[in-house]
Amino acid sequence: MARNQQLINALCRQIYHIGMAELYYYPALPLLQFIGCQHIVATSAMPLESIYYKYLGFLNAVANRNIPVIGSGVTHKNEVKSREKEFIKINKIYNKISNQMGFNQVIDLQNIITNVVKFIFVNNQPFMDFEFIENLFQEQQSPFSHKIIHIGGIAIPQNNEELNDAEHAIFNYANQNSLSVILVSFGTIVSGQSMTNDEVTNIAASFGTFTQYLFIWKIEDNEIFNNYGNIFSFGWVNQRAILEHHLTVLFISHCGINSVLEAVKYGKPLLCIPFMADQFYNSKALATRRAALVYKKENGDFDDLPEKINIALKNDGRIKRLQNKMNEVNPLHTFYQKMSELLN
C-alpha cells in the first residue's frame, strides 16, 4: 500500500484530524504520519509487546520480573531484537518512498511511538495484569506512561445478551434438576481439529465424571460426546449470555484477552488452558493474583484435569474482587474522553 504512489498522493490531498492504527499492524503508523494526520493514536488488542515496553522505558524492569513475552517463548530482549530488525526494514521502505515522492520526511517508528502517537489504547485493565505492571503505570515511572490508556472491556455490551433456544433448554434442565453449568471454549482459532482425538476423548472423560454439572463446550460435534449425557457441544455459543447466567459456575478457557475480560466482568472462576499468543501471559497474570488456575497440557492425557476443575470451582473469591473493580471502570467513557481531548 505504501508503495502505491497514486494512492498516497490521493490520501495526502485529504485532511485527517485523527488517524488510528493497531500496533499489531505497526507499518500503518508511519503511513498515518506520511499522509499528514494531525493526531495519531494506536490500539493494542492484547497486553503490550516487549518492544513497546522498551520504548516506554520499562523493558529492563519487566524482563527482570519473569513476566512472559507475548506470543513467544524467547526472552524479552531477544524478542525486542527481532522486532527492531523488522522496524528497521519498515523505516527504510518509508524513507525511500518519502525521498522518491519529494516529501523528505524522516520516518522512524520508535520516534513515532514515543513522540508522535498521542495515546495507546490497550485492551486490558491494570488490575488484571501483573501487579508489577499495574504499579509501573500507576506510579508514572516513565515520561510516556500517560500515553497508555486501558480500555479493556469496551467491547462488552451494556445490555444483557440472550441465550438461544438450545442454550435455554440446557439451563432450564439444569435449573429443574439442581445442576450447575460449566462453559468450555478455547476461542475461535483453537478448535477440535487443533486437538488430537485422544485429547478430546480424555477431556470428555474428565467432564463425564462431574455428574452434578452440565458442560457447554464450544467445539465441533464429535461422536465421542454421545457417550456422555452431561456434555453439549456447539460450533458456536453465546459466550457472554452463558457467562452472565447465575447457574454458570466455571469457565474453562484458552484465556484470550477478550474471554478473560468477559469472565471477570461476569465474575466467573477461570480454569485456563492456554494454547498460543497472549494466552500464556493472561493466564499467568491472573494466576499470580490467585484469580485463575492454569492447567499445563504438556502430555495431553489430562489425567489430573478433574482435580484441577474441583480446585477451580472453589476459587471464586478473588475473581469476585476483580469483578467489583471491573464494574467501577467505564472503558467506553474513558475512550470518548481521550478522543475528545484530541478533537477540542
Automatic annotation (TrEMBL):
Belongs to the UDP-glycosyltransferase family. One of its GO terms (molecular function) is glucuronosyltransferase activity. It comes from Meloidogyne hapla. GO terms for cellular component: membrane. It is found in: Membrane. Keywords: Glycosyltransferase, Transferase. It catalyses: glucuronate acceptor + UDP-alpha-D-glucuronate = acceptor beta-D-glucuronoside + UDP + H(+). It is a single-pass membrane protein. Its EC number is 2.4.1.17. It is an enzyme of class 2 (transferase). Gene3D superfamilies: Glycogen Phosphorylase B. This is UDP-glucuronosyltransferase. InterPro entries: UDP-glycosyltransferase, UDP_glucos_trans, UDP_glycos_trans_CS. The lineage of its organism: Eukaryota, Metazoa, Ecdysozoa, Nematoda, Chromadorea. It holds the Pfam family UDPGT.
